Amino acid sequence: MSTATAVSTGTWNLDPTHTEIGFTVRHLMSKVRGKFETFEGSIVTAENLADSSVKVSIDLSSINTGTADRDAHLRSSDFFGVDTYPTMTFTSTGVVDKGDNELVVTGDLAIKDVTKPVELKVEFLGEGGDPWGGTRVGVEATTTISRKEFGIDFNIPVGGDTVMIGDKITINIVAEAVLQA
């Protein structure tokens, strides 16, 4: 099924209580997971899906990895520098319908003072009514970025070529958005 024929046109706002913007990064021999608690975003779906757009702004101080000391360090100038760079933003530059409920959304990701193009692989989960008389859409998206490319290169050597924190960050988004009247 083509996603283009499955989505109503209009402006959809992310529902923060039913959306999670999370990440995974290598830490020594394991992985650390976290998420951002505060964000806002909108999806504008057009008749021609290629003309659709996505904008998201994330409050970097809302990072939550489940460890207060680690979260405070991530907010510091070693990582995000939230006093100077409080938000991370994504603005789409293109949408391609791959068919079978799969999309590719390209866009510009801005972290700190660096903006780089990224490609999100998106699965369209569906559209339908909710108990409050609204219309919702669900998507899952993923991408992988290099934190060093965004000027986030703090690390601690632990011997040889091994460092404490991996460079690749996997971003996972599970989102519900509500159609605006």
From TrEMBL:
Gene3D superfamilies: Lipid/polyisoprenoid-binding, YceI-like (2.40.128.110). SMART domains: YceI. PANTHER family: PROTEIN YCEI. Belongs to the UPF0312 family. This is Polyisoprenoid-binding protein.
